[in-house]
Design brief:
The structure is a single chain. The chain is an alpha/beta fold. Helices cover 38% and strands 18% of the residues. It is built from 23 helices and 28 strands.
């Protein structure tokens, strides 16, 4: 009896173990399989190069890397790999492309349904539900050939879900951080708004067709001749700044830096100044984040270009006239705005696979299309900026300080060093791992760093001094007393209080500098977002505004009890844009150890205030804490990390009332209210 159509599988493995671009065009296959069988676990069998991509495809539930079973020569231990696959209890094995290793693994996996392309003799034996595709004829795209195999599992179900499903690659905030930092440094990003830019990846991949560095230089020069070098700008909407034509970013990895220099050497000095170079020292997901921020993309048919297609970026892509490397075969699947450029195979350099001559008419078409896309994007950006300007102008403003009859003289904005008159004040205990990131973020704006070390046993003191901090070692006196001990040690006009696990984001840094320069007698609170389990939580524990920036003349002081200390001062309080990234917990173990400790501290605070225990509080308060964080605060939108945060709120609330009840019975729990954070 035939096992097809496949009805209710529990686990489906889909294999694509070749290059980056090959995997990207297979993403619709994983997404479509998940749409057809939402109850099934979708498992990806991939190469080492693609593992990180597979981990960022939402439809993929588990990833197996074939290279984990290979020796130094690349020979795969089929028996070891098969044992792993058997443990997954597969119902179906789908090979999007096949070789002898993959087809042998299909049989050895124990999957009852084995689907793959029947091209080699063994594939007719190994794939019991194989398809004859004749991919060498290249009459379809690679993605379409892949999807044929998925549809073969159940053509009716495939039709019911609407055929091929598209799914974008995802990436984490830490992947985006290097890309965003680069764009801000280059003046291409303000806040969360990215200035339109052209992203060019000028390096040849497996497609065997590309422009030479000389032609890329000609293309860039033509684009920049339409731009700032010749004074041309777009006419912006009212209130927005003009947009120069255009911004160009070259993307490369460290091994390609020499080639970047060769390309730049062919541009004029003015043109070189208008080109921004991003050397990616991070992962492939950092490159993905940068691609996602570009206005459009130019490059050969490589993995990075396929990523641009997956993210639906308008793209000019170079292909060879060879049928197997053609646009017909390797089109950017689902990207309706791709402009393919076919380069004659016979004119490509046999070694570099690059072309050194391009007709003026073809070059002019590329420049025209690029600028056309850019103009549309830049106009939209200009309107967005205008809306923000209008929104800011609509907010009622206070009378300028100098026009107030009771105004006090403005504080000096800067000291002799050129930095703001700012002391960054920190207490720390065993923070050698997190402190460098905190101090590096303020090194360029702090005229003084003061740190009280609570008898650390690691290299906290050495780390702090390496950033020029004045370090004082004192026994921990409790959070309130310890932080108040910082204040007389600060000599600058403004004080910014930070914890050793807090990092300013660039927008907040700029806002702090601007606030100090304004010199108004105000204090400023700022929001704090927690980085937890690999992601920045946008909902759980939000909003979390803390007063942190004060004038020394405003008599700041810390108040509170054992836990939950707060800063007070005599100035009115305003808010700053941006946020602090709070690297609060090193891991789940650290989180829950501290949850227990803070629950004890809260209970101790209740005891000092004479609060009595209540069974109703023990039963219902934890439930409300969970509901508030997970549903009311929308922690559910932060995924698994949000759920764990909500559970921790439940546990914390439960324990603090249990510790209070324990104390009411006269039982003494082991507790030291002065123990510093670890």
């Amino acid at each position: 009896m035939s096992l097809l159509p496949l009805k209710a599988p529990r686990a489906i493995l889909i294999a694509r173990t070749d290059k980056i671009g090959d995997f990207v065009v297979s993403i619709p296959s994983y997404a479509t399989a998940k749409a057809m069988y939402p109850q099934a676990k979708i498992i990806a069998l991939v190469s080492r190069a693609n593992r990180i991509l597979a981990e960022h495809v939402a439809a993929i539930d588990e990833c197996v890397c074939l290279d984990d079973f290979a020796d130094a020569s690349g020979e795969v231990d089929v028996a070891a790999a098969a044992a792993k696959l058997k443990s997954l209890q597969l119902d179906a094995f789908v090979a999007l492309v096949s070789n002898n290793t993959i087809s042998r693994l299909a049989v050895a996996s124990g999957a009852a349904v084995r689907v793959g392309p029947r091209s080699k003799p063994l594939s007719f034996v190994h794939y019991n539900y194989g398809l004859r595709q004749k991919r060498s004829q290249c009459i379809k795209s690679e993605a379409a050939y892949n999807l044929e195999l998925i549809a073969h599992l159940d053509p009716l179900r495939y039709a019911e879900v609407g055929g091929a499903q598209l799914q974008r690659l995802t990436y984490a905030p830490e992947d985006a951080a290097p890309a965003d930092a680069f764009l801000r440094e280059q003046g291409l990003m303000t806040g969360d708004v990215v200035t339109p830019f052209i992203l060019i990846n000028p390096f040849t991949g497996g497609s065997g067709a590309n422009l030479s560095s000389e032609l890329y230089a000609v293309l860039i020069a033509h684009l920049l001749r339409q731009g700032p070098e010749h004074g041309a700008t777009l006419a912006p909407s009212a209130g927005a700044a003009p947009v120069a034509l255009p911004a160009v970013v070259l993307m490369a990895v460290p091994s390609q830096q020499d080639k970047v220099e060769q390309l730049l050497a062919q541009l004029s000095e003015q043109q070189r100044a208008a080109v921004h170079v991003f050397i990616n020292t991070g992962s492939l997901m950092v490159a993905t984040a940068l691609v996602d921020r570009c206005t459009f993309f130019i490059g050969p048919s490589t993995g990075i270009t396929q990523i641009a297609g997956n993210l639906h970026k308008p793209a000019i892509c170079f292909y060879s006239s060879r049928l197997s490397n053609s646009h017909t075969r390797w089109a950017l699947y689902g990207d309706k705005d791709e402009i393919p450029v076919t380069l004659p195979l016979e004119e490509l350099d046999p070694v570099t696979k690059e072309i050194k001559f391009l007709p003026d008419e073809q070059m002019a078409k590329m420049v025209h299309q690029t600028l056309k896309w850019y103009e549309v994007a830049a106009q939209a950006w200009s309107e967005q900026v205008a809306e923000q300007v209008a929104a800011q102008e609509a907010v009622p403003l206070e009378l300028p300080l100098q026009e107030r009859p009771d105004a006090t003289p403005a504080v000096p904005a800067v000291v002799a060093s050129g930095k703001p008159s700012l002391t960054v004040a920190i207490i720390a205990h065993n923070e050698q791992d997190r402190l460098p990131k905190t101090l590096a973020a303020v090194a360029d704006i702090a005229s003084e760093i003061v740190l009280i070390n609570s008898c650390s046993t690691d290299n906290t003191v050495e780390v702090a001094r390496s950033f020029g901090a004045q370090v004082y070692t004192e026994e921990f006196k409790g959070y309130v007393e310890q932080k108040n001990s910082l204040i007389p040690k600060c000599t600058q006009d403004w004080i910014l209080f930070l914890d050793a696990d807090e990092v300013l984001n660039p927008e907040l840094k700029a806002a702090i500098v601007a606030a100090i320069a304004a010199g108004e007698p105000k204090a400023y609170e700022m929001n704090r977002l927690t980085f937890y389990l690999g992601k920045l939580l946008k909902h759980a524990w939000q909003p979390n505004y803390r007063l942190r920036l004060v004038r020394r003349a405003a008599n700041p002081k810390w108040v509170g009890e054992i836990v939950h200390e707060a800063l007070e001062c005599s100035d009115p309080v305003a808010r700053l844009p941006g946020y602090i990234v709070h690297y609060s917990y090193r891991d789940v173990n650290d989180h829950f150890e501290r949850t227990i400790r803070y629950a004890k501290m809260s209970a101790q605070s209740y005891i000092k205030r004479g609060k009595k225990p209540s069974l109703l509080k023990i039963i219902f308060s934890p439930i409300f804490s969970f509901i508030k964080l997970y549903f009311i605060k929308l922690g559910c939108l932060d995924g698994r990390a949000g759920y764990i945060a909500a559970q921790s709120a439940f546990i914390y609330t439960f324990l603090k009332y249990v510790f209070l009840w324990e104390a009411s019975l006269g039982l003494k729990s082991q507790f030291d209210e002065r123990a510093p954070k670890k």
